[in-house]
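Shape matters. Shown next:

___
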Amino acid sequence: MGKEMMLEALKTMYRIRMFEEHAKKMYKENLLAGSFMGALHTYIGEEAIAAGVSMRLNKDDYVFSTHRGHGHFIAKGGNIQKMMAELMGKETGCSSGRGGSMHLFDRDINFMGGNGIVGAGLPLATGAAYRAKYLKTKQVSVCYFGDGAASQGTFHESLNLASLWKLPVIFVCENNCYAVNTPVSETVCVKDVAQRASGYGMPGEALDGNSLSDVYAAAGKAVERARNGEGPALLECKTYRIDPHCMVAGDMRKKEEIERWKERDPIKLVEKEMLKENIAGTHDFEKIREEVAEEIKQAEKFALSSPLPDREKFKEEAMNR
């Protein structure tokens, strides 16, 4: 990974982190006023996964997200002004103010949306991969899902069909150790979710999801394999969400555990590597953060000044369903 690519990846990770931090602030300030739509699930601590995978994708490749999808959207090239507006239910949002935080959608970059149903994105991503193979487009389909979804029936059904038909889909399990407050050890009977790939005749790899370089390398192999018609792969990125499951849920995790994982902050790891290799210095990091802070400031301004959806349009949509 060259200097410019690493700097761009770091900027993406800053953009995700700083957007989420600002969204939390706005959520707390505006919740009672009804200015935010739905629950807010942050991606803080998992930024290296979305950044590392998306660096290997083309604009027309498909991405299927989850309820924790802000980072996926940003890494795929989504407009943060449109995302901020969507979180506030505005007409200018990426889903025209109809979806909110958990249902981001942008057809222009083939970001096919998040989902509030655990494991629901798996068969959808498999279907998009089938389309790509049928039309011989060389596109790949990426499906993000959590460790909790790895024990849903949709997981096994999707992996089975994808392997049987050699579909160009990469299943990315973001194993952040908990399904809400349930430890992964209580829901998965094997050491690694990646082990389950062997039952479906596809490669499976468990890797450090907090290491940008590891994710980038693993995603590169999986994407190349898919484009060459060799079928799907399962990547299990072991990581940790720093925040509670969402802004309205309690947190039963031990503080000591959270602090241990903070020591392996993916952004700090990238900065450390870049400093060690003389790729960039602290002044470079500060400059990028300032640029991102201005982007987020403008996104908030855009969202606040945007109009709410027209009630008559809602009525028409409801009548035409």
